[in-house]
Amino acid sequence: MEKLKELVKTGKAPETEARVKELLAQKVLPEKILQEALIPAMDEVGDLFQAGEYFVPEMLVAARAMQRGLAIIKPLVVAKGIKPIGKVVIGTVKGDLHDIGKNLVCMALEGAGFEVVDVGTDATPEKFVAAIKEHQPQVVGLSALLTTTMLSMKDVIQALKAAGVREQVKVMIGGAPIRQEYADEIGADYYGKDSTSARDIAREVIGGE
Ligand code: B12
Fold it and tell me: Which residues have a Cβ under 8 Å from the Cβ of 79 and sit 6 or more positions away?
């Protein structure tokens, strides 16, 4: 696991892929690989960036390596051929390009049997509104990793109100800078600290219907 973490941190994409496969062959659970190597590696990359030891290019190659690893794990944790139990529209808000966390949330939701409509990154409030009108989800997930872009979560909620669709969905928000207080402040229904919470929230909403 330590070796895998190091490979992600140093942005070695093909080696990351190979190491993930190796660990899986040794019967290490995909969830364990995710929780104990891939995610902690990105946390450490963030710390190195903050300390001025890493710059954007290093963060970028590390993110690419992480995504190569995730691509191997995804089919193992995502449910297949099951009738979806509910629908979630999710995206990273306007101005924000971080999508690893959102993709993990998508994986957890799909793994639990939800249909996920991913509107991608840098998604405008209008894009969320259009996706809600088209797909009629029960839950909308908003992700933001920057203290500057988390402010656009409020714009999305306002746009949902203006479009008359706010009452038909529950809004859950998440991302590293987000806290419960912020969810309360902007009128989001839920805050989820990680992908497991996102899955539990979706289950609660859909189970509660
Ligand atoms: C990788 C990375 C990048 C990559 C992103 C690649 C990609 N495809 O995502 C690149 C290099 C592009 C990048 C760019 C930038 N980044 Co950056 N980045 C990171 C880094 C190192 C890791 C993020 C990550 O993937 N974490 C791993 C995932 C698994 O965790 P997560 O995203 O938090 O998601 C989990 C939870 O938050 C939650 N969650 C997430 N979304 C949602 C949604 C819902 C609905 C729910 C319920 C839960 C939930 O569940 C997830 C799984 O558990 C972080 C550091 C950090 N520790 O966060 C900095 C970080 C977020 N970046 C930072 C900065 C400053 C930038 C740049 C501005 C740098 C620059 N000067 O250009 C740009 C901004 C670009 C933009 N417009 O978005 C700062 C933000 C500071 C701040 N407070 O605003 C951080 C914190 C680094 C730091 N320590 O300073 N970055």
Answer: 110, 111, 112, 113
Distance 200 CA to ligand 1 centre (A): 22
pLDDT, averaged per 10 consecutive residues of the chain (209 residues), comes to 97 98 96 94 94 96 95 86 89 98 94 94 98 98 98 98 98 98 98 96 84
Domains of the chain: 2-77 (1.10.1240.10), 87-207 (3.40.50.280)
Ligand 1 mean position to 24 CA, how many Å?
27
Instruction: Give alpha helix (H) positions in 34-136.
Output: 39-50, 56-77, 100-111, 125-135
